[in-house]
């Protein structure tokens, strides 16, 4: 029996979207703290309390992003997502490409970060750092697109990520 496509995101999908968005923004803004923590530990120094707190939050928030993204992918596969909003073939392609890259980064950023921190894989650390500008670029495109829908097209695309009601 084929599963019918939902007309809205579920409240769980909406909650995960905003929690992960907040966690990713935190990682982008305060991510440098993990470098300070690593430097202090390599030198055998006791890290400053704030550096230690922010560095550990970077690790735990990264793990949370990974777990929540796996749940999100599971929900997308099993429950589905509402159909794409109407638009040109090009805008549809751009939207799908941005979402696919977001999912790739949300999985690869924590995995490479964990490999660099716990397994000392240097190349993983380099890839992890290169993901920051990629995230910033994607978020800028994504937020501009959401604002375009809200204030220029004046459609309900923003509302789809705010309420699970049809
Ligand atoms: C203020 C910031 C943000 C706004 C206003 C926003 C808005 C939205 C909206 C309105 C949608 C639904 C589009 C639709 O119905 O097709 C959406 C989907 C999505 N957003 Fe965001 N978003 C923000 C931040 C983020 C961030 C930081 C990430 C990634 C870390 C992200 C990742 C995604 C993904 C992957 C989807 C697609 C969901 C799916 O169908 O699988 N968003 N966003």
How would you describe this protein?
The protein is an all-alpha fold. The protein has one domain. It has six helices and no strands. It has helices at residues 11-30, 33-42, 49-78, 89-119, 122-153, 157-160. The mean pLDDT is 96. Residues 17, 20-21, 24, 76, 81, 85, 99, 102-103, 106, 139, 142-143, 146, 157-158, 160-161 line the site of protoporphyrin IX containing FE (HEM). One of its GO terms (cellular component) is plasma membrane. Keywords: Cell membrane, Electron transport, Heme, Iron, Membrane, Metal-binding, Transmembrane, Transmembrane helix, Transport. Its main location: membrane.
N-to-C CA distance: 24 Å
String of helices and strands: HHHHHH
Spans of 5+ residues with little confidence (pLDDT < 50)?
none
Query: What small molecules accompany the polymer chains?
Result: protoporphyrin IX containing FE
SSE order and pairing:
Elements lengths: L10 H20 L2 H10 L6 H30 L10 H31 L2 H32 L3 H4 L6
Helix pairs in contact: 1-3, 2-3, 3-4, 4-5
The protein binds protoporphyrin IX containing FE (HEM).
The site of protoporphyrin IX containing FE (HEM) has 19 residues, from α1, α4, α5 and α6.
Provide keyphrases for this structure.
single chain; 166 residues; mainly alpha; 6 helices; binds protoporphyrin IX containing FE
What's a quick, concise take on this entry?
With 166 residues, the protein is mainly α. The protein has helices at residues 11-30, 33-42, 49-78, 89-119, 122-153, 157-160.
């Amino acid at each position: 029996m084929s599963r019918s496509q939902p007309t809205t995101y579920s409240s769980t999908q909406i909650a995960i979207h905003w929690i992960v968005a907040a966690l990713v923004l935190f990682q982008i803004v305060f991510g440098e703290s993990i470098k300070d923590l690593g430097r202090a530990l390599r030198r055998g120094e006791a890290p400053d309390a704030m550096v230690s707190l922010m560095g550990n939050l970077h690790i735990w928030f990264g793990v949370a992003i990974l777990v929540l993204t796996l749940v999100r992918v599971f929900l997308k596969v099993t429950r589905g997502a509402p159909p794409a909003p109407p638009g040109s073939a090009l805008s549809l392609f751009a939207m799908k490409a941005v979402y696919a890259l977001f999912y790739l980064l949300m999985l690869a950023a924590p995995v490479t970060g964990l490999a660099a921190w716990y397994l000392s894989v240097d190349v993983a650390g380099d890839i992890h750092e290169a993901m920051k500008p990629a995230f910033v670029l994607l978020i800028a495109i994504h937020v501009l697109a959401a604002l375009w829908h809200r204030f220029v097209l004046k459609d309900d695309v923003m509302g789809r990520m705010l309420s699970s009601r049809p």
